[in-house]
Design brief:
With 189 residues, the chain is of the alpha+beta class. It has 2 domains: 40 residues; 140 residues, Sandwich (lipopolysaccharide transport protein A fold), CATH 2.60.450.10. 21% of the residues lie in helices and 56% in strands. The protein is built from 1 helix and 10 strands. The chain has a 10-stranded antiparallel beta sheet with strand order 1-2-3-4-5-6-7-8-9-10. β5 and β6 form a beta hairpin. The radius of gyration is 27 Å and the shape is globular. The relative contact order is 0.08.
């Protein structure tokens, strides 16, 4: 038996090493599947991702938008997207770009509606700032609206009021009630 072990020890050691490597590969593969992959896909909820950048760029539409978010969830059929702690960037073809940050939002591909809420703060590249608690952007119909208090700061004015309706096609903004406007040399200070 000693002669057999003495001659065959390299093969036995190699076999043991293969068993050990196989064990670790199977174990690590099982942990990988149980861990991050299954954490991202939750049955009934769809896909959930953290720290993401999502871009919506449809060549048939005149609006490109992207969102950076702490967490994003997609419905199982990917028709509904929900995001948390976000920065939304809207890039119309023929108008200044606009950035909006807030606490949470939802996007429905079926309706083209983006529902945003939580300390919303917007900024346009042409010097305007916007503040409110809640807003709805209807991508298909081309409007933005809210019933909450709003504040808009521009290069030479500030406007506060309750409710807002923006017709994106006609480029018209309407504050619905309790409007206060201040015209100054520099309202952004």
């Amino acid at each position: 038996m000693r002669v057999f072990l003495k001659k065959q020890w390299p093969l036995i050691a190699l076999g043991g090493l293969l068993v050990l490597v196989s064990f670790y590969l199977i174990r690590s593969g099982k942990q990988m599947i149980e861990g991050p992959l299954l954490d991202a896909i939750v049955k009934g909820e769809g896909l959930k991702l953290k720290d993401i950048h999502y871009t919506h760029n449809d060549p048939n539409k005149e609006m490109k938008w992207s969102v950076d978010a702490l967490e994003v969830s997609f419905s199982e059929d990917k028709s509904f997207i929900s995001f948390r702690e976000f920065l939304l960037k809207l890039e119309p073809e023929d108008r200044p770009c606009f950035e909006l940050k807030g606490k949470k939002g939802d996007y429905s591909r079926k309706t083209g509606t983006i529902n945003l809420s939580g300390d919303l703060e917007g900024r346009s590249e042409n010097g305007y700032r916007f503040f409110t608690e809640h807003m709805i952007i209807n991508e298909k119909r081309g409007y933005v609206k809210t019933n909450e208090a709003v504040r808009i700061l521009g290069p030479f004015f500030s406007i506060e009021g309750n409710g807002l309706f923006v017709d994106l096609e006609k480029e018209r903004i309407k504050i619905l009630s309790d409007v206060t406007t201040i015209v100054t040399e520099n309202s952004l200070i």
